[in-house]
Amino acid sequence: MADAMTQPTNLQQLRDCGWQSKTVKREIHDNFLSALERGDELFPGIIGYDSTVLPEISLALIAQHDMLFLGEKGQAKSRLMRSLVALLDDAIPYLDVPHIPLHDDPFDPITTAGKRFIAEHDDEATPIAWWSREDRYTERLAPGTKFADIIGEIDPAMLASGTSMAAEESLHFGLIPRMHRGIFAMNELPELDELVQVGMFNILEERDVQIRGFPVRFDIDVLILFSANPSTYNRSGKVIPQLKDRIGSLIQTHYPRSRELGIEILDQEAGIETEGTYPVAVPYFMREIIEQITIQARQSKYIDQQSGVSARFSLANYRTMVASARLRSVVLGERPAVPRISDLGHLYSSSLGKLELDLMGSHQMSERQVVDAVLAEAIAIVFQEYVDKHGLDAISEIFSKGVKIEVGDTLPSSQYADRLKRVPPIWDKAFEVNASSEDTMRASCVEFVLAGLHSLDHVSRAQAHGRVTYTIR
What is the pLDDT of residues 370-414, one digit of tens each? Predict the structure, then answer.
């Protein structure tokens, strides 16, 4: 592609530079194979799909298919669709002529106005402009979408001026015709009105547009992508069979297959500044608990699993946990801020509203009770793994001496050390989970062990006024 300073500005220059027309699918196909041959990172930021989803997308791109991304919420469907923009050329030329409603190919215009202008002007008098890669993608959410939004409608102003309803000039085009030579994505396909679905499959099959009974036949060149949730996509009557039949490839997404992958996504997406004036150090076991909360929610019988539990659930909880630790750090003057189990008491604000409860279940629980349950399960599971690895259950022996330990999200870390001076040797075991001489990190380890012991019924817990006291049962 020519440098931006030397890009052709008229049709003659475009012919002289050797530029050739390609369909958008062929353009993506060629750029994908070139990137594959060079060993480029094809889908940056996508984690956990290397052996499942990405190979299927690769085949669909080479096959030059329209695609449907099928999966529960929070499975990177929109990110995957948007990532395909990187496979477009930096920019493509189009006829820079007023009154042409889309980016017409200078060598192969599809509009009446474009064809007429080419026929009436010589190449040097035909102006060319360039359509950037980033502008060649658009997406729409299905609920509330009308036929006029994505296909088009008769323009009353043109009719008033005497233009025939059967003429192309009388139409106001929607998003898909305007994305000619680009990518159009429709999110939540099953929520799309049936009439609009009819228009969609006509474009997929015939690549033409019919508006108000008037066929406007021109060869629209567009890659069309869809996303949907399996529970609605597979429900009879939600998507018309003709439209399903015309989608080239179905790409099935999924949640991370392991907690480690979920934590990797968490670290990538959290976007939290850990350095600076108020640094944050997050123990790995706290990351494990946050991700395990989401895993437990995805397995809970009280939650509607057809809807799913998004990765955004983990991200919101993680940010809330870090925010609580940072608030304590600023107020108490502690550095660095280290999240503790007591910080998880604030997760209601970031969890409520994100879980769709199973209202058909025999045992009903409020959303707050469900959050409490999955949090307790997550702590127990993660702690048990550390018990098996480090033998931390020996710590419970100290409680037989009548020791009581109070914890809380506003309690200074130094006070944890003061309370533990009576039993320092046994607590060395606790610090194996995240060894550190920092009071803030040791306080986090202490709370983890106490909460873990409580989950295993080794100690009892009493809560009052935001403070928690652990004692022998």
Answer: 999 999 999 999 988 887 766 655 565 655 555 667 778 888 888
End-to-end CA distance of the chain: 74
Residue type at 404 in one-letter notation:
K
Structure-token pair, residue 108 = 């192969």
Residue 436: C-alpha distances to residues 97, 303, 338 (Å):
68, 38, 12
Give the mean pLDDT of the chain. 85
The CB-based long-range contact list for 113-122 (8 Å cut-off, 24+ gap) reads 113/168, 113/169, 118/11, 122/12
Instruction: Go through the domains of the chain in sequence order and give each one's CATH number.
Output: 4-252 (3.40.50.300), 259-472 (no CATH)
Residues 6+ apart with CB under 8 A from 321: 286, 290, 339, 343, 344, 346, 347
Map residue 383 onto helix, strand or coil: helix
Give the predicted TM-score (pTM) of the model: 0.85
CB 275 within 8 A of CB 82: no
131 φ, ψ (degrees, to nearest 5): -100, 115
10 Å CB burial of residue 56 (0-12, 13-18, 19+) is: middle
CA pair distance 311, 269, nearest whole angstrom: 10
- Inform me whether the pLDDT recorded for 121 exceeds 50: yes
Residue type, 263: I
The 3-state DSSP class for residue 152 equals strand
325 neighbors 91 (Cβ within 8 angstroms): no
Q: What is the C-alpha to C-alpha distance for residues 20 and 123, in angstroms, rounded to an integer?
A: 16
- Distances 156 to 160, 163, 164, 171, 214 between C-alpha atoms, Å: 6, 10, 11, 9, 15
pLDDT digits (tens, 9 = 90+) for 154-209: 666 555 565 555 556 667 788 998 999 999 999 999 999 988 898 888 787 776 66
